[in-house]
Amino acid sequence: MSNTFNILFLCTGNSCRSQMAEGWAKFHGGDDFTIQSAGIETHGKNPRAIAVMQEAGVDISQQQSTKVDDAMLDQADLVVTVCGHADEHCPVLPADTKKEHWPLEDPAKAQGSEQEIMDQFRTSRDDIEARVKQLLQRLKQTGNN
User: Fold this and answer.
1) Residues annotated catalytic, as ranges
2) Which of the four pLDDT bands, split at 50, 70 and 90, describes residue 52?
3) Domains (ranges, CATH) in the chain?
4) This model's pTM is above 0.70
5) Most buried of 11, 68, 121, 124 (most Cβ within 10 A)?
6) In 30-145, where does DSSP find H-type helix?
C-alpha cells in the first residue's frame, strides 16, 4: 500500500470528462497522488478528448476506458464524480472514502460544426484543468496527500 493520496474520477462511460481529469491530475499531481478514472460502464475513449488534450501537451491516448470495480473504490481516498449520472449511480463507498461532485457539461453531446464541437471540448478541457489544479492544491494544503 502506498502512502500517496488516491483519487478516482468517476463518470458514466469513462470516455471523455473523467479521462481528461485523469490526464490533468497525473500531469499536475506528480508523485504525490495516485490517479485513476473509471465509468459506471465503459464507452471507449473519445478521440476528440484525446485530440484536445494533445493540443495542451498531455497525452491520454494510453489511458484505458475502465469500468469501476470494488478494488478501485476500496483504494480511493477521494471519488470525484464528473457527471450527474455517475453522481446519482455512484456505488456505495467505503466509510472512510470522501466524495466530491463536479457537475460538468458533456462535450460529447455538443452539436454544430466540427469547429464548434471542438471548441466545446476545449472549453471542457480548460474547465477540468482548472478544477483539477484547485483540487490538488487544496489537498496539498490540507495534508491529504
Assistant:
1) 11, 83, 90
2) very high
3) 5-138 (3.40.50.2300)
4) yes
5) 11
6) 47-55, 70-75, 84-88, 114-141
